[in-house]
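Recall from the previous chapter that SMILES is a line notation for molecules. Here it describes 2-oxoglutaric acid.
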Amino acid sequence: MQLDDARVREYEEKGWTVVPDALRAEECAVLETAAFKVLERTGPEVARETDGAPHVCWGMHLFDERLGTLTRHPAILGPAEQLLGNKVFVHQSRINVKQTGGSIVEWHQDYGTYHRIDGIPRPHGIMIAVFLDDVTAVNAPVLAVPGSQREGMVSEAVIDEGVADHERAAKHRYDITPQTMSRLVDNHGLEAIEARKGALLFMNMTVVHGSSVNISPLRRLLLYINVSTVDNRGETFARAEYHAARDFTPLEALGEDCLLAYA
Ligand SMILES: O=C(O)CCC(=O)C(=O)O
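With both inputs in hand, we obtain:
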C-alpha cells in the first residue's frame, strides 16, 4: 500500500497523516485478542495504573506472533518505507490501553528518548498507531503540535521524577516544560488526532504529543509500532530489548491477508 500525494504532503507539512479503514474488522479483532493476551503478562514490560490495570506493554511484537505479523503488514510497511525512503526495523512497539480514569501522557517527543537514551542518531523514524477503538474528543485522543517536527529535538525537555507515573510508565520520558509547550502551541497550534477503529496514524517521531486523562467510560486501545530506517540504529543498548531494538533486520512485507490467517 502507498499513500497518495495529498497524504504525503500532509505528513511532510504537519508531521502526521491518518489513513482511515486501513485494516478490516476481522484484522482488528485478531489484534485486540492478541493485545489483551499480551497485557496478561506479569513482567516489567507491562506498566500498570495504581489499581493494577494494565496501561502500556512495550515490545508487544516480541511476545506474540500476531503482533509480530502486524509489523510486517503491507498497510504498515508500504507507507513507512515510502515516507522514509528506506527499509525499516522496529525500534520499539507498545500496546497502550487508556482505561477510564487512567494516566495522562505528558508532552514529549518519542525521538527525545530514542536519541538521548537509545542512541538513535537521526530522527529518521515514524510512530505508527493502529486504532483498535474509535477515538474522538471524548476518550482522550492523542494531542499533537502540527509542524513541531521542524523544531528538531526540543532541548529543554527533562525526565520529571515527580510525575505520578514516573516509576511505572514515565521513567524514560523527556517531558517538555510548560514554557516550551506555550511557545510551541503559540507558533504551531495544537490538534486532537481522532480516527475510527481500523485507521492507521503515521507520525514523524519528532512531533510533540501527549494525551489527557480518559474520564469517559469508553476504552481507547491503540497499538504503536515505532520504526526507524536501517541506517539509523540505536547504539547504546542501555535499555531492555522490549524498550529498544536489538534486531535490526529490515522488515519484509507479508501478503495483504497475513493477519486474516489468524481470524
Ligand atoms: O497513546 C497515548 O496516549 C500516547 C502514547 C505516547 O505518546 C507514547 O507512549 O509515547
